[in-house]
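Continuing from the previous page of notes. For each protein in this section, the sequence appears first, followed by its structure tokens. Read the first protein now.
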Amino acid sequence: MPSLTSATALVLDALARGYRHGFDILEATGLPSGTVYPILRRLEEEGLAASRWEDAAKAQRAQRPARRNYELTAPGRALAEQARARYPMLAGMPAKARTRRA
């Protein structure tokens, strides 16, 4: 299990609130890419998150590279709850707008 640093807590909370792509998580947390992507990789290695690449045709239609979608697993959701209890500042982070299409 990763150490529950404030950066890890921010990434967990962003995933729990519906942020799915690395860039969205960067924007939501304000953390640099050199922090976010290693955390996402560790979460995945430890079974706390899972990822999959979006359909290449969808990305091509949007004229951008394919995105890697991340999602918390059940243990990851439990750790996100622990993170919220440990870092009350997370309560102020907005949920991802559900109407925006990725």
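Done with the first. The second protein uses the same format. Note its length before scrolling.
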Amino acid sequence: MKALQIILLSLTTLSGCAKKQNTLPTATTDTPSTQKSMTTTDTLNYLALGDSYTIGEAVPQPQSFPYQLYSALNGQGLSVTPPTIIATTGWTTDDLISAIARSGLNGKKYAFVTLLIGVNDQYQYLSQDNYKVKFAEVLNTAISFAHGDISRVFVLSIPDYGVTPFAGGEDAVIGPEIDQFNAINKAISMQAGVHYVDITPISREAAKDPSLIAPDGLHPSGKMYQLWVSLLTPLVEARLKR
């Protein structure tokens, strides 16, 4: 989402994927026989799935939330490798699913996975019913990447870009729609049993704090991402050190 033309992919880039049955993700939790205790000497790999909010559009890479999270965890004595990122500006949930299939990472496992996807579904007026199906599908994939362990998956809510200059005062429309999409991803995440981190209230602080917005007038600044990471770090650290 660098400029209006490329902020979000146009509808013409969407594939005509047939709807799948709306089934919630299934996964395993740790049992005494499968639980792996993470120590500070383990090398831990990290997969970040998403869109422009994951790649950190309009900020330097070290200021993106995956890289700030990686740095914060290493600062807590963990040995985390730089994140593997599957994300591109403008991706819808369908686009992310397609990209994962093309990534060549099938069978690869990660110590933990973050997932933030859906703003472009809202922006492109895609149906909420489709989002329910596709979000459940991509969450199931995220769980698979995380050894099938729901405690290693961290879903972030969709930020509210309605408070940014880009939105042009349409916050009264955009905000409620973002809430509706977040209600979907939260319900699916809670039923699946993964961690859910609500960063949307932080994003709305940008209405009165312009320093939380990147120079492009749309995306979060490194300062906002740091606030997200302050919520994420204790959760991820606790899981990896247990």
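What the second structure shows: Helices lie at 52-55, 65-75, 93-102, 119-123, 128-145, 171-192, 200-204, 222-241. The two ends are 38 Å apart (CA to CA). We return to this in next week's lecture.
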